[in-house]
Amino acid sequence: MANRRDSRIEPSFEGPPQAKSSAGFSVSEEDRVVPSNRKTSAKRQSAKTRSSRRGRGKSRRGLFGVLGRLAYWCFVLAIWGGIATAGIVVYYGAKMPAATTWAIPDRAPNIRIVSVDGKLLANRGMSGGEAVGLHEMSTYIPEAVIAIEDRRFYSHLGIDPIGLSRAMVANVLGGRFSQGGSTLTQQLAKNLFLTPDRTLERKVQEVLLALWLEHKHTKDQILEMYLNRVYFGSGAYGVEAASRRYFGKSARDVTLPEAALLAGLLKAPSRLSPARDPKAAERRSQLVLAAMRDEGKISAKELTTAMSAPASRVASYWTGSENYVADTIVEELPDLIGDVRGDIIVDTTVDLTLQKLAEQSIRRLIDGSGKKLNASQGVLVSIDNSGAVRAMVGGYDYSTSQFDRASEARRQPGSAFKPFVYMAALEAGRTPDSVRNDAPIRIGKWTPTNYGGKYFGKVTLATALAKSLNSVAAQLTMEVGPDAVVEAAHRMGIQSDLTANTSIALGTSEVTPLELTSAYVPFANGGYRPEVHFIRRVTTASGKVLYDNNGGGAPRVIKPEIVGMMNSMMTGTVEIGTARKAAFAWPAAGKTGTSQNSRDAWFIGYTANLTTGVWFGNDDGGPMKKVTGGALPAQAWHEFMVAAHEGVPVRPLPGTWRSTPADTIVQDEIPSNTAQPAPVPSASVGQSAPSVQKASPPRAVRPAETVDAGGFGLPGGGGTTASIKRPVPPADVGGPVKKRQTSILDILTGG
Q: Is pTM beyond 0.85 here?
């Protein structure tokens, strides 16, 4: 019983009942069958609130702890990253030369070639265009470039952290290097000093150089340098070259759509070039226009207008025949001024209007008849009496072939070479009224024949030249000797080697159109041989004169009476002879030429104003279809000369010659004791060409008097020529000779 009493639980009133109850028998409100209506005491509620606050505090302390740790490590990484970046910059910067030695490299010099009236013919040099001031070019150009390439150009210090970050994000998301993040200043630094390699070292150096540029130059100076040096594709460096290349105009005149197209090229100049992919270039230009609108550079109306009328590219920057002239000038410059070290301006003798007329006359005939007649190329050279080249077309299309046939192609002149034969004969004592028998002849194994096989019997030399009779030219060459003919040709201006044989009478030695045309100039100006030239003056961009062609004197190479006789004879070629298609309102003279199988067709003609030579043929030497010098060449010459002489007062040809009445003409002869050169077989029109045996190089011109120059470099006075050795003139010039012995001439002429 005692145990039972001891184990019995006795009620106790000590201590708080709530504590005891809660220790053993407290039942939560949720566990009650019937919930109690009793309110929780304030004390219990306070404890519960404190517990909740402690939980939330721990949560907040955990979040701030994570953020704090994150911020801490970011700070640490930033410090170490900055240290690493500084180390890289110092490392690669140490490899660069000292900043005190840095300097902007000179821009590649440009050669600006202008016509006689100051119009641009072409630009030559690595840049392909002259430098243009920022405020001289169209305002659309810098605005378009900044809008699409570097919108914060005027606010950053050479590098753009925002743009760089954006480019990095784009590259990461794209999984490839698609954006560079370089500012215009960085691009300029790269173009001026660095290679295009994409390496960390080059990027660091680019940044340092960009900062240096920003320190040394203003924003406008940097932008101007950039626009005058950046590559725009198609070989164009700088906005001036690009504007002329794509639009045929100066950067000063570029329109809004054109500026947008140029700015769009900078991303990928070769791929987006309108010469390669016009549609891609247009799409890119529309993005540029939209960027300009976003930047407030253009209005919505301007955007709509530009979008609806995109820029149109010129047919071809390289089509113009004036580029043949430009190439020739660039080759001559080193001999005149040495190395080109800065931008220069070359004032030429070329008249751009005449140049375009010459180009049109050649192209029109080839386009119209070239295919039918198998003639694919043509040349036209026009020279004034002072030796100044006024026009030179070196081929059908410069863009497809830059080979200058006018100054570089050596072709057989055919009968266009005969004036030098007749000139030598006149200097040996013959006259235009001298008579020869035009008949089939044989000289050794060579039988020269007339074109078409027709013969005219006894004819004067004037008639023989007008009708281009081969047999008479061969007879005259035998009379005076091939060496005399070669000497006469070289004296007149032919520079090529000439083969001194009998067939030289028919133009079998090759010459260029430029030198053959220049050799006719003394006939047109009264007997003087001026220096043929393209360049009048060379100056620097600042106006300093580097070279000035003041004309000087021109030596007399033909006596006035010989000039008169030659002009009288060659006038007949135009009036009654093989070049009748060339005739126009001015007194004109000249000579046609056709080589074997119509491989070459020529007409070299002149007035007292201009001497113009025309050639048609094929580069491969293939024959044309019965094209003679009196056909296409005479037609092109006529078309050009009529336009070139429009509005110019008519002048007669120099020299006078009065022909002897026909009933008093007496045939002359060669004295029987005159030694004749051994005939050398060679080619003539209508027969195959035998082998060439020897060549006579250009020899020294006979002593000549140098006279003062008149207006435009023309000779102002007379002069006399020294005598040269040649066969003795016949004793019966101008009258009969009785009781003479039979000569070789009697045998040849049937007398």
A: no
